[in-house]
Amino acid sequence: MAATTITTTMHPVPVDAFPTLTSTTQAETEKVLREHMPTADKPPTLQKNPHLQFLIRNFTQGMPSRYMSYDASQPWLLFWTLQAFSVLQIGMDPDTKQRAIDMLLECQHPDGGFGGGPKQAPHLLPTYAAVCALAIVGRPGQNGGWDSIDRKKMYNFFMSLKQPDGSFLVSQHSEVDTRGIYCLLVVATLLDIITPELVEGTAHFIASCQTYEGGFSSTSQPYYSADPSPANLLPFPRPALGEAHGGYTFCGLASWVMLQPFLPSTSTTKPSIDKNKLVRWLVQMQGVQAEMGGFKGRTNKLVDGCYSWWVGGAFGLLDSIGINPTSVATPEADGADWVDVDDSLFNRKALQEYILCAGQHPAGGLRDKPPKHADAYHTLYCLSGLSAAQHKLSPSSSRRKQLADAWVQVGDNMELRQRIFLDSLCYSEEEGTDTVVGGAANRVNATHPIFNLTVTHTEAIMGHFYGQTIPQKTTRLS
Amino acid sequence: MTDKPPPPTPYSERPEWSDVTPLAQYEKANPLAPILYTEEYKDATGYLRAVVQSGEKSERVLQLTEHVIRLNPAHYSAWQYRYETVVALDWPLDVEMTLMDELADKFLKTYQVWHHRRLLIMCIGLSAAGRELGYIKQILAQDEKNYHTWSHRQWLLAFFNDEGLWAGELDFIDTMVNRDLRNNSAWHHRFFVVFQSGVREGEEDRERIVRRELVYVKQHISLAPNNASAWNYLRGLLDFNKLPLATITPFVKLYTAPLPAAAKDIVDVDNPPPGQGAELPCVAAVEFLADIREEERNVDEAETLWRSLADELDTIRKKYWEYRIAQARSV
């Protein structure tokens, strides 16, 4: 593969002789990034060892007091760290796993759901983080964590947050936002507690968060009235509050994918999103060469390593909503243009360069951009973004068939539950579609495009809660 | 760091708290990735856990929650419990709001400060809303793109849906756009106000509004053509009003070619030309023109434009432009 991204002329983002605060901070960022540009003779390397040291240090020495603001996000600290290890292909020893399980279970609230720490109120965000962390370290049986999750109470907790417009508060007396809904849907899907009752109206809510730019916002407005009640609900679509944003867009799109089995079948009531606009917005978030191909989270904002996952990772969900470049690319175009096996819609190579050259802190851990510090959050989302840029997992009909053939009838609502199970687990990577910048040593694990867990961890926890045995893959898949 | 006030007396040494036994965080687990809390924080949150468990709602709980919030404004449980206490005590909401003015300013990047304001405003009603618009304006003057603040403003306007509140919005947006015409939050707010939240008095003639908006956005593009926010607004405006992209072909074409050597003598207000500092051709304009050609089913010309984006003007998105070509060809 030719080094096209490096050799292309490096134009600064145009200022049109009309500087404003946005263009000034943009120019400053470009200046910093210029000092980190990859050179043709020295391929960038993933500093796995310093990153592992950074992660181990977090676990053993603890988080410095500047992490005190994460006191209400303790399951997140655990999830970010554990999943970063997973992406780096490192498993945990049994003692560490047990400590993580014990800690997470103390964050479970007696009324259902998980809080940001022990004796904190249950909240959708730490609930996601705790359940996903348990997917990584937990196991069935006593002290294994999985069977100590109170699914009945979890469901009631979710229902207690439900709003008339199909959305959910993130916690009692708290805000509605698409991150919370993503978190709820992931947990409900993994734990086999997602029902039509739970998600009624939710797809309409998600669709109403898509803005005119194509990305999704944090929430939408259900009423023009100081008297919020179902009778005063605005007709659909409702106005989005806040502009299109990378984090909300990932959460909105992933939610949309998880809600597919629940969409009404009639076209009159079926909510819809504008897919072309969404794709356009996603690709526009990739910075140009002067920004090293990193992703930004909003129009006219700066690139930031965490959007490597929130935006870069969102491309991995497009196949699931019927956007597949290969299906339109091949036959008529002139042969020479299409020899490249990389059929992604974004520049996978440039994103890897951004993460490797700008995202890595020399002392270990990953970051927003130089000269910032590394932190647990950016470490995971840069690594997950790197994974999304290296691997392309897509829904596979053959994997789907293997799972369907192995399916055994357990419980009620078989058809729906089986569809959710198959939709969630049919992702696989076609051989020869990975693109690793800097050589095989830089390779990281693939991560599930919806859940940001490895496929192995997703299969294990879903197999457990759906009462299924996961069939071996018949072809070699990474 | 030098003029930091000494930490307050620990709750464990305050006689007025001697009836409360602090609750430890973890009972069984030896936590991984433990946070190295300050003594002050450890002390205060131990008492917070205890009062939450006992259900005490009192003035000293307001002091305690304020203390915890000042140390960690992201402590959502402290906020939640504080709100319940404010309601239970029938605490004067103006006093709470004054405190919030200080805290939102200090911690403007946390969700909770904004949400707490929202809860209070819902209790107070419309009379709090006008003042709130002024407060938000002041915050946005120091953090122009603060996501929470902008969406809080939009919520406030939509929730009360009061003509008096809406009345000043276009002027406010002008102020923000004039300060930085690349501020996407301000453009999004304009879209929300003009198109997505009902029709104001005096704006019933929608054709006039569309014309007004076209003039507004084109003028801003002419000042600084390479501004994705303005182009996205333009696309949104046409799309929302179901107007063909070709409505503005003559305008777009001014931006797809290199800058002419001399400015024209005649000013066409519908098609303001690029200023002398403009860096042309403008990628967003070339993309726009390609979309116009696709809309007109002139795929050959669209392909030429997409090719120039893929190979020269916007090579980072090569894959996408090639996808657009393949997509247009497959129809």
Furnish the topology, listing elements before pairings.
The complex is a heterodimer of chains A (478) and B (331).
Chain A: H1 4-7, H2 21-34, H3 48-60, H4 74-87, H5 94-106, H6 124-137, H7 151-160, H8 178-190, H9 202-208, E1 219-220, E2 240-241, H10 246-259, H11 275-284, H12 307-310, H13 325-329, H14 348-359, H15 376-390, E3 393-395, H16 397-406, H17 414-425, E4 427-429, H18 455-466
Antiparallel strand pairs in A: 1-2, 3-4
Helix pairs in contact in A: 3-4, 4-6, 4-15, 5-6, 6-8, 8-10, 9-10, 14-15, 16-17
Chain B: H1 39-54, H2 59-71, H3 76-89, H4 93-106, H5 111-124, H6 129-142, H7 147-160, H8 163-166, H9 169-179, H10 184-195, H11 206-223, H12 228-240, H13 249-253, H14 283-295, H15 299-313, H16 318-330
Helix pairs in contact in B: 1-2, 2-3, 3-5, 4-5, 5-7, 6-7, 9-10, 10-12, 11-12, 14-15, 15-16
Please sum up the structure shown.
With 478 residues, chain A is an all-alpha fold.
Structural class of the secondary structure composition of chain A? mainly alpha
Give the structural class of chain B. mainly alpha
Approximately how much helix is present in the residues of chain B?
55-70%
Rg result of chain A: 22 Å
Number of helices of chain B: 16
What can you see in these coordinates?
The complex is a heterodimer of chains A (478) and B (331). The two termini of chain A are 22 Å apart. The N terminus of chain A is likely disordered. Chain A is an all-alpha fold and 478 residues long. In chain A, the strands form 2 sheets. Chain A has a two-stranded antiparallel ribbon. Chain A has a two-stranded antiparallel sheet with strand order 3-4. In chain A, 41% of the residues lie in helices and 2% in strands. Chain A is globular and about 60 Å long. With 331 residues, chain B is mostly helical. The termini of chain B are far apart. In chain B, 61% of the residues lie in helices and 0% in strands. Chain B has 16 helices and no strands. Chain B is elongated and about 80 Å long. Chain B has a domain of 120 residues: Protein prenylyltransferase (Serine Threonine Protein Phosphatase 5, Tetratricopeptide repeat, Alpha Horseshoe), CATH 1.25.40. Classes of the chains: A mainly alpha (478), B mainly alpha (331). Chains A and B meet through α2, α4, α5, β2 and α11 of A and α1, α3, α5, α7 and α10 of B.
